[in-house]
Amino acid sequence: MIYGHGDDAFRYGDKIKMNFSSNVYSRADYSELKEHLMAHFDIVGHYPEPDAHSLESMLAEQLGVPENTVMVTNGATEAIYLIAQLYKGWASIIPQPTFTEYEDACREFGHLISYDSADELEVLPDDRIYWLCNPNNPTGNVLLKSLINHIIRQHPRYLYVVDQSYADYTLSPMLEPREMQDCFNVMLVHSLSKKYCIPGLRLGYIFASPIIIDRMKHIRQPWTINAMAIEAGKFLVKNDPKMIPDLNGYLAEAQRLYENISAIEGLMVMKSDTNFMLVNIDKGNTPELKKWLINNYGILIRDASNFRGLDDHCFRITAQTPEENDVLVEALTTYCASN
After folding, report:
1. H or E stretch covering 71
2. How far is residue 153 from each of residues 84, 136, 160, 179, 186, measured CA to CA in Å?
3. Helix and strand tally (H, E) in the chain?
């Protein structure tokens, strides 16, 4: 689903003035990172570490876990595909709607896929993986940390992949790697790309038992993380800057956007615990709305119709500045009133 994600502004030239389609915070200050990378630009003339071990060591220290429980990946997406490859042919339970790459990766490696239907769960083989996106994309809802922890520990026969890529976009508590070291049936996926607002550099990591990490490293290709990404990752982990300087204020603005859009007749918004939210439109359809917003306001939204379980009346938006959010509300009000 490479071309089915948000932030497809590249398709529209210079038409996009306000981008609501990406979940990543768009006002990050990169000045110190830019300065550091320019001072180390000569690294592009050398091969990077085959497995980003130096960054893995720094991450492990930051997380308070052993080095052999952490594996840096080319974004969270590489982590997802490596997990699906390692457990080729297993059964995978993927509650919907959720991030489409879980299903794509599992299909590529011959998994028997269930969408969390009760009658299917009774007949699935015990070699199964549960894929949980928390916070969930595209809905923005968060499952209780205590609930997930309880489920994982009560069912040691099954494997659980908990994708916490949006952990830094919610105030809800998440599973911490150091708290899960005694669980050998869990894999935590994280996205440094989202935490530090650097999606173009593609950085993520997996926390899992040493056995799982070792097996995963034996099947991955070498040099999947480029030298500039590794250098950026080391700088960011070492300094751990707050790329979202005021998360409380940002989420309060997202709540204001939610309330204003909820007041528009013809739109229904799902309650979210993050900076993004899923919207359903009664009249017209999302492809038409997306085209209209681009042509009339230079606004880009995320067409959510390619998420399993959703249709062409669904779209996802992410809170931006108060001024931009007000323009979006005005545009949606105008569109709904004219249809």
Report:
1. strand 70-73
2. 22, 21, 10, 12, 9
3. 12, 13
Tokens 């659980």 correspond to what residue? 160
Residue found under tokens 């603005």: 253
* Burial of 277 per CB tally in 10 Å (0-12, 13-18, 19+): buried
Q: Which amino acid is at 286?
A: T
Reference 335, options 264, 248, 251, 279; nearest CA is 264
Of 12-21, 145-154, 212-221, the one with minimum mean pLDDT is 12-21
Question: In this structure, which amino acid lies at residue 297?
Answer: Y
Sheet with 276-281, side-by-side order of all strands: 267-269, 276-281, 314-318, 302-303
Q: To the nearest 5 percent, what fractions of the chain are helix, strand and coil?
A: 45, 15, 40
Beta strand pairing status for 299-300 and 159-163? Answer: unpaired
Task: Decide: residue 118, CB within 10 A, 0-12 exposed, 13-18 middle, 19+ buried.
Answer: exposed
The Cα angle at residue 250 between residues 247 and 252, in degrees rounded to 5 = 110
Give the number of other CB atoms < 10 A from CB of residue 279.
Answer: 24
In this predicted structure, what is the pLDDT of residue 10? 77
Q: Provide the β-strand partners of residue 278.
A: 316
**How far lies 185's CA from each of 134, 155, 255, in Å?**
17, 9, 36
Residue 63 has pLDDT above 60, yes or no: yes
Report how far residue 285's alpha carbon sits from residue 338's, in angstroms, rounded to the nearest whole number.
13
Q: How far is CA 230 from CA 64, 198, 250, in A?
A: 20, 12, 29
